[in-house]
User: Fold this.
Amino acid sequence: MNKITNNKAWFLVLPVFFIVAISAIIPLMTVVNYSVQDIFDPQTRFFVGTDWFRQVLEDSRLHDALIRQIVYTGSVLFIEVPLGIGIALTLPRKGWGVSACMVLLALPLLIPWNVVGTIWQIFGRADIGLGGYTLNLLGMDYNYSQNPMDAWVTVLVMDIWHWTSLIVLLCYAGLRSIPDAYYQAAKIDGASNWAVFRFIQLPKMQSVLVIGVLLRFMDSFMIYTEPFVLTGGGPGTATTFLSQFLVTVAVGQFDLGPAAAFSLIYFLIILLVCWVFYTVVMNAGKREEQ
Amino acid sequence: MTLTLENITKTMGAETHIDDVSISLEPGSFNVLLGRTQAGKTTLMRIMAGLEPPTKGRILVNGNNVTGMPVQKRNVAMVYQQFINYPSMNVYDNIASPLKLQGVNTAEIERRVKSTAELMHIEHLLDRLPQELSGGQQQRTAMARAMVKDCTLLLLDEPLVNLDYKLREELREEIPNLLAKRDTIVVYATTEPMEALLLGGKCAVMHEGRVTQFGPTTQVYHNPAYVETGLIFSDPPINLVKAEIRDKALYLASGHQVPLAGHLSNLANGNYTIGVRANHLSVDATGPDCIAMQGQVELAEITGSETFVHVHFNDVSWVIQEEGVHNPRLGEATTFYVDPKRLFAYDANDRLVAAPPVEIQNGKAA
Assistant:
């Protein structure tokens, strides 16, 4: 009854509303708009309902790209996370070595994606690249522009080289925050190195690891630049991941309807996986608590 | 088990952390290590535990040299200032962990974990994780883990420092009882004189890496052998004033004169440092022999049950401890009294040469 309504408060919300609208809602709605219409020109458009979604979901090229993507992202996480933890555990804890290691590790993180692609494209060439030339000299028939497996592995190695440091730095920060008394207590108990890792270091690193895994998942699931620079998705479709496929449909074929429908599906997949992963990990933490 | 440290020295680079410490701890004894921060308490405990080797000296257990023996083989337990528990294990598994590593069978583990948890009043928390516990409960868990394995040496490194004052008092009262019926040698490090007195047992006073005095806690309190010991073992630190004895009287640097009587009567002429604890100064005369002194009030700290009045006169500062709340006006001149029977006298080398009789220090004698 005596509640005072002050409509001025709305003005305070407006800037946020505009920024979010321009940066997220309007672009997203444009995509939604494309995804349900067949557009010939601005005046000629037909509402097609879920046709584009159905068409895209039935496209075998998408299925292949999705499987390729899942295997790739799985490999990235499977290699980078244990490797990152392993490197973090072996880093020095004090002295001049700490800053030296930090600088060395941070270097790859500072390099832009397309430059990484270019570096490895040249490095891997059999004629002028140090890596490719050496491999061929050792008797391996390495050629990423002809051999699908070589191209796929090159993109994977590129990512590991580029991003393992991120996991290392996160884990190292987590490890550094463990008070020395924990290690002493474990030593007094007579705990093995494995027990120290399993029951002290790993639980203490859990929260940073969750962030690391989420970041690496999202980033590797959206990988585009490196395979684009290296082989443009080839040879054949060996390194055509979801982003490559999307660009082929949207820019190459200019099928904006299916491309928009697929963008939305792509977005939902990432959202869903992140949500499931986060919920599962956090629940696992809680279940242990109970 | 008797633990003997012989001439233990620990240096790191140019710094000496422990300086020629020799001490012998009896089986079943409760030993308080009292010293300021950085006095070397933690380092000495780490050496006792075997976590660190001494640079020089020997550690003997029942006369056997164990100096180089690694910590796992020594059967020691340690409780830290931080609450150290395995973060992913519940309280039960935390307490059970040392027993599991020793290979004790499951039924025995369960029996001992349960009884230890009951002793520590955490039996209702056994399935919780450490992060779900309050600080006091976490530290109880850590202590249970230390006590469950019947170690021969239990080291407690300022275990109550990070607890709030209520919990600290609660645990402090329990600790001596918890450990009373054991053969374990307990070493308890603290910076607080009050805590040392409440815990009782024996007390080793540490200063700059040395054990300056070792004996029954109350005896050390009543006879702080050095000026530094007096400062460490009094809170607020003992009041000190330079003095000179000549013509059968004690002349304090503050300009006051004290007749030589009682325990002071045998002192020779010369320079001394006189110490008097804050609780032995008073704004009211407590006896006929009391000497009135004047000073300017600089500060009054009121804790509720007590008031610490800081007084300044002729370049000498005094802290007077009074019961109850007092509100002296700052900057105003005040009169306070000192009883000559309660003065500690230290010679020119800062060694105790005369201490008040115990019953007078306790305020029982008239």
